[in-house]
Write a structure and sequence with these properties.
mainly alpha; two-stranded antiparallel sheet
């Protein structure tokens, strides 16, 4: 029991820190905690992971709304809508809607898992490479059609991003692609450098350029939770659809819930664009993103727990802990610890929905300062984070170089919607693998 409480508490603290600090992924945090994981029972290592990943979703959206930066790619839609609301003086609404939306999405995911537990492992086996390729194609089409740019611009962004994501050593051909004999390029372009250089920092610069006054927000009261919960009734179909999309996409190996989040956001945004009612800072789009994000964060763990297949880098660490402990991750083992996982997940959601909502009140001092100074400080911190992340593989200057190489391009494109490029870069390897596997099967 003491070890379980320790694992839960550590996961909670690590998840909050991971969500708040941009550039720090779940994989990086889990790698830092790996020496601790090796001394935990497998069930407690899993509880730590579930708690940590659940926390990240709440606090990544808070940081995205508050500071205009993202801690993970899945938080990009929330950052886009949330920070725009914050700059309009509606940061309290953005944070509260995100927190409550995340909580509802989490609970829906829990109910789906409970109701379908006996057949989920069969459902998992349905998704072969051809099905995944179709899903990728649908997602790409949605990205191209719903972005605020002209379609040809979105196609260009996406095409360039797919090529950029393909740079590096290709194991299938045993050759380098666009590496030009440079050893660092064999590992590919670092995701964090690409996101910061093309998206995050240019977006911060744009905020500085457009900031003409001090920013303020309304503090969040406890009664705000009840008021917001009632308001969420008008979002019921958006909440259900987005939670389902996030859940299903999170359950598909190789895709994870980034597609569910992007599709949920794009569907609401597209509908409002057709009605000429959309503008950046849309609450409906924000809620859709958060519901999908939280729902997917649970389902993405299920392939590991049900059939013992890790589908993300961070899950491989849990898988290794289980293997070294002699534990076989099967549906029978999952059922034996299901109650513990449920309790940890519910407690995580309850604690995080309260802390993430009230978090904005703890930093109310920014009402008294010019927010441009905060933006400048964030850019400095991001550079330090970038250097630190690169140093883990002795590539700190490579990370910095790629960032500064892409920054001028990001600055030039700062008034464009480059999310199709970001998602194209992130998914490029999976699209390539799914396409190759599907072609091989057809032959």
């Amino acid at each position: 029991m003491i070890e379980t409480i320790f694992a839960f508490s550590l996961g909670l603290l690590a998840g909050i820190a991971t969500g708040i600090f941009p550039g720090v992924s779940i994989l990086i945090t889990m790698a830092m905690l790996y020496p601790v994981l090796m001394h935990l029972e497998t069930v407690n290592a899993i509880i730590l992971y579930v708690t940590l990943s659940g926390c990240v979703n709440y606090f990544a959206s808070v940081s995205g709304t508050f500071f205009g930066v993202v801690a993970s790619p899945t938080a990009i839609p929330s950052m886009t809508e949330g920070h725009a609301l914050f700059r309009k003086g509606q940061g309290d609404k953005a944070i509260m809607h995100a927190a409550v939306g995340s909580f509802i999405g989490s609970m829906i995911a829990l109910l789906i898992t409970f109701g379908l537990l006996e057949i989920l492992f069969v459902f998992y086996k349905l998704f072969d490479s051809r099905i995944k390729l179709i899903i990728f194609f649908i997602a790409i089409t949605v990205f191209v059609m719903t972005s605020s740019n002209k379609i040809w611009i979105n196609i260009l962004f996406l095409s360039v991003a797919l090529v950029m994501g393909h740079i590096g050593y290709r194991a299938d051909t045993m050759t380098g692609f666009l590496t030009f004999g440079i050893s660092d390029l064999y590992s590919g372009l670092p995701l964090v450098s690409v996101i910061l250089g093309l998206f995050v920092v240019p977006n911060i610069i744009l905020c500085i350029e457009e900031n003409k006054k001090k920013l303020s927000f309304t503090k969040i009261s406890f009664s705000g939770y009840f008021k917001n919960a009632k308001e969420m009734l008008s979002y019921k179909w958006i909440i259900f659809r987005s939670s389902l999309l996030g859940y299903v996409s999170g359950f598909i190996p190789g895709i994870t819930y980034i597609i569910g989040v992007a599709l949920s956001h794009a569907m609401v945004k597209s509908k409002k664009q057709k009605e000429n009612t959309y503008e950046k800072g849309d609450l409906h789009s924000l809620v859709a993103s958060e519901c999908a994000n939280s729902s997917g964060s649970l389902s993405v763990i299920l392939p590991l727990l049900l059939v013992g297949i890790p589908i993300t880098g961070s899950q491989t660490l849990i898988y290794n802990v289980a293997m070294q402990s002699g534990v076989e991750l099967t549906i029978d083992y999952f059922q034996s610890m299901y109650f513990n996982i449920i309790i940890a997940y519910i407690l995580t959601s309850l604690i995080c929905v309260f802390i993430s909502g009230k978090y904005v009140n703890w930093v109310g001092v920014i009402q008294k300062i010019n927010f441009n100074y905060v933006y400048a400080a964030i850019i400095l911190v991001l550079l330090i984070v970038l250097y630190a992340l690169g140093s883990r593989t002795h590539q700190e200057w490579y990370f910095i170089f790629i960032f500064f190489s892409l920054l001028p391009i990001g600055y030039i494109l700062r008034r464009f919607d480059i999310t199709p490029a970001i998602y194209g870069f992130i998914l490029s390897d999976q699209i390539y693998l799914s396409l190759n596997t599907a072609i091989a099967i057809l032959k």
